[in-house]
Design brief:
This protein is α/β, with parallel strands linked by helices and 404 residues long. The protein has helices spanning 13-22, 45-57, 72-87, 98-107, 124-132, 146-155, 179-184, 236-241, 256-276, 284-290; strands spanning 5-9, 26-31, 42-43, 61-65, 92-95, 113-115, 137-139, 160-167, 202-203, 213-214, 216-217, 220-221, 229-231, 246-249, 298-299, 322-332, 337-342, 346-347, 352-355, 360-363, 368-370, 375-376, 378-379, 384-388, 398-402. The structure holds iron/sulfur cluster (SF4).
């Protein structure tokens, strides 16, 4: 069985390191000023160069998204940034439209090009077209099912195909949507969606603006526009059988905790599948782990869909059973303790779990000590504290606690 690539979002250098620790084969990042995500999830060139170096040392690839729909006023900036991006050592640039592709061909001709899912590639002829233009990989439209994907892989076997297997879905076609720009001037088409499709809505009769009719389903609000999140971990044999090269996780704007949990679950599942082949069975613990991160209930999306629609779940807003508590900054082998950067509020005696790449361990939190050795009853975001742990733990490992 061919080993697929597990491709993880890395919104910043810390998340890139998290992805490396928990088993990514490749990461994708936002290129400063050129990606289709807001600036908070774009990396500076300096961070990108550092991240590429660390990733390549572990044989992990780095792809940079320059998938903005460039306007004329963006082109001069793109002409400058593309060679600078290539100089960081990235393994490919992700573009969405022919203008950026042409610029890339001129200014960084040796850099492989991946075509973004925003280009809505949905059929064999489109894939052949982009192949003729020198594209090495197509990130297929999310709206395809596995049968259609398999047909494309069979018809164009030398094209690398990438699909999303996990993460948030849009009700709009591949995110081409103005709802966010319309509601609060944050355009999804410029990577800044505020997800108003997930807000609660009420109906106002025009002469009674202060007397809204609440749209209810089963005693709750109706979330008419909001999709469940995609999760294909139970169907990895079917996904690999379709012939895809790369399995992509959505979420460059999500937390390091999300990156850790999702990377680890899919890493373990894929390794197990490669080893067990037809004896592979998805473990309940992987599904449970994915439920610890923020989600809106899971769906298989379009993977097996006859009708091309997303699923919504009126009964669920966001759910998550756990939240991040901190990150390991250093391990002291003499005193057998780890220095933690707190990313939340924790109290002495509470139940903390440390996520290691291969297992989860409970941590003794009866005594929290600051760097001066003082005992604390609680610690807040950005504080640094010591916690005991018997065996060496890797820098960057994530701690979590039950969601409050
Ligand atoms: S508002 Fe919802 S449907 Fe529209 S782009 Fe944002 S997430 Fe997608």
């Amino acid at each position: 069985m061919r080993k697929p690539e597990l491709l993880i979002p890395a919104g910043n250098l810390e998340k890139l390191r998290t992805a490396l620790l928990y088993g990514a084969d490749a990461v994708y990042v936002g290129a400063e000023g050129l990606s289709l995500r807001a600036s908070s999830s774009e990396m500076s060139l300096a961070d990108l160069a550092a991240g590429v170096k660390e990733a390549h040392a572990k044989d992990v690839k780095v792809y940079a998204a320059a998938n903005t729909f460039a306007r004329n006023s963006d082109l001069d900036k793109a002409k400058i940034i593309i060679p600078e991006l290539a100089a960081t050592g990235i393994d490919a640039l992700i573009v969405s439209e022919p203008g950026m592709l042409r610029l890339m061909r001129n200014s960084a001709p040796h850099l492989p090009v991946h075509l973004s899912t925003q280009a809505n590639t949905t059929n064999i002829e489109s894939v052949k077209f982009w192949k003729d233009q020198g594209v090495q990989r197509i990130i297929l439209a999310r709206e395809l099912n596995l049968k259609e994907i398999g047909e494309i892989a069979a018809a164009v076997p030398d094209m690398e195909l990438e699909i999303f297997v996990h993460g948030a879905m849009c009700m709009a076609y591949s995110g081409r949507c103005y709802l966010s720009a319309f509601r609060n001037r944050r355009s999804a088409n410029e990577g800044d969606c505020s997800q108003p499709c997930r807000w609660e809505y009420a109906l106002h009769e025009s002469t009674r603006p202060y007397d809204p009719l609440i749209l209810q389903e089963d005693e709750r609000y109706s979330y008419l526009l909001s999709s469940k999140d995609l999760c294909l971990i139970e169907y990895l044999p079917e996904v690999l059988a379709s012939g895809v090269t790369s399995l992509k996780i959505e979420g460059r704007m999500k937390s390091a905790y999300y990156v850790a949990v999702v990377t680890r679950a899919y890493r373990q599942a894929l390794d197990d599948l490669i080893k067990q082949k037809e004896k592979y069975q998805c473990r309940q613990e992987w599904i449970d782990e994915l439920g610890t991160t923020s989600n809106r209930g899971y769906t298989t999306g379009f993977a097996f869909a006859e009708e091309k629609i997303n699923e919504t779940n009126p009964g669920i807003k966001y759910v998550q059973t756990h939240e991040p508590a901190g990150i390991v900054l250093r391990y002291d082998p003499v005193k057998k303790r780890m220095l933690i950067g707190i990313r939340n509020h924790i109290v002495a005696g509470s139940r903390l779990e440390l996520l290691l790449p291969d297992k989860t361990v409970s941590i003794d939190t009866r005594i929290l000590r600051n760097e001066d050795g003082q005992s604390l009853t609680e610690a807040n975001n950005d504080q640094r504290i010591y916690l005991p742990v018997e065996k060496e733990v890797p820098v960057g490992a994530i701690l979590r606690q039950k969601a409050k």
